[in-house]
Amino acid sequence: MRYSIWALAVAAGLSACSAPVANHPYVWQTLNGAPPLVIAHRGANGELPEHTIEAYTLAIEQGADIIEPDLVLTSDGVFVVRHDRWLSDSTDIADHPEFADRRRVEGDRDDWWVDDFSFEEIRTLRARQVREGRPTEFDGLYMIPTFEEVLDLAAAHGVPTEPEVKSPAAFIEAGLDPLPELVRILRQRGLDTADAPIAIQCFEPDFLARLNEVIDAPLLMLVFQMQELEPDLDPLIPTVALDDMVAFADGVGPYKALLVDTNGEDTGFIARAHALGLSVHPWTFRDDQPVGDGVDIETELRRIYALGADAVFTDFPATAVRVRDAMIAEGASSN
């Protein structure tokens, strides 16, 4: 089992709460007994357009322990940072008449697709807020960064990254296998080792299994509810079984509904993963999105932290840091 990203961050002193850990009596249920880490999901995208240098910088300033870029490929094989292959939601591409004839239908979506554009063309676009109700005054201001630019930012601040390779099968079908370029970048930067300050995520087990054969960096298997694919199944069955992912992954990134049932009770998912040596990084915690049972974000985070999540993905890193640090302070004050 490789070194997990949470262990690396704590060992490097990157967690904002690492200093008082030894002196407070709170017993964390994480794999290493340290407080959970905060992963800035697409940067501090609750406040700024997602996947921009500005959103990542704000997240770091807010105390995020790890930043998360999503990786997609341009037609000339450059990794840029976007959540989706399509571009209409997160960029101003609809405002570029020179690209109007590039719009096309794929599956059931009529859109512009990143792999139809060169890096130079993508560089002319600007980022936009994706989710309704969030600030839009920064729309059109920020460039679409490359993966390597995000790695440069992370290195400058001494913060690990947890990049997700998006839709590798779709890119392979388009003639753009993400694996060789990913491996090239990781090796060039010394990020392909077991103790590298990085963990590579993906929803596709075949891609992670291939990657496991060629690099030693930590790998995180992302899973959601199998019920989304087959409605008759138990909602607590993940898309990849924990026992199966142990062969190639070092951690699991589960949708949070796999951890706590509709009654707010622990499903045992974290304990089972920990028993297999897998760190657990659930997603996604949002201040502006109720969890369905009327629980506010602080209550939700406290519940997941108490269950032993090793890290959490959040759009609002300042909130996740504040709640975690409040739990530490409460423990310390009772000593």
Keywords:
alpha/beta, four-stranded parallel sheet, 28% helix
SSE order and pairing:
Layout: H1 5-11, E1 37-41, H2 53-61, E2 66-68, E3 70-73, E4 79-81, E5 104-106, E6 109-111, H3 119-122, H4 147-157, E7 164-165, H5 168-173, H6 178-188, E8 200-202, H7 205-212, E9 219-223, H8 242-245, E10 251-254, H9 269-275, E11 279-280, H10 297-307, E12 311-314, H11 317-333
Parallel strand pairs: 1-2, 1-12, 3-7, 8-9, 9-10, 10-11
Antiparallel strand pairs: 3-4, 5-6
Provide a concise account of the structure shown.
By secondary structure, the chain is α/β, with parallel strands linked by helices. Helices cover 28% and strands 12% of the residues. A 4-stranded parallel sheet has the order 8-9-10-11, with helices on one face.
Report on the architecture of this protein.
The structure is a single chain. The protein is of the alpha/beta class and 335 residues long. The protein has 11 helices and 12 strands. It has helices at 5-11, 53-61, 119-122, 147-157, 168-173, 178-188, 205-212, 242-245, 269-275, 297-307, 317-333; strands at 37-41, 66-68, 70-73, 79-81, 104-106, 109-111, 164-165, 200-202, 219-223, 251-254, 279-280, 311-314. A 4-stranded parallel sheet has the order 8-9-10-11, covered by helices on one side. Helix 10 (297-307) crosses helix 11 (317-333). The radius of gyration is 19 Å and the shape is globular.
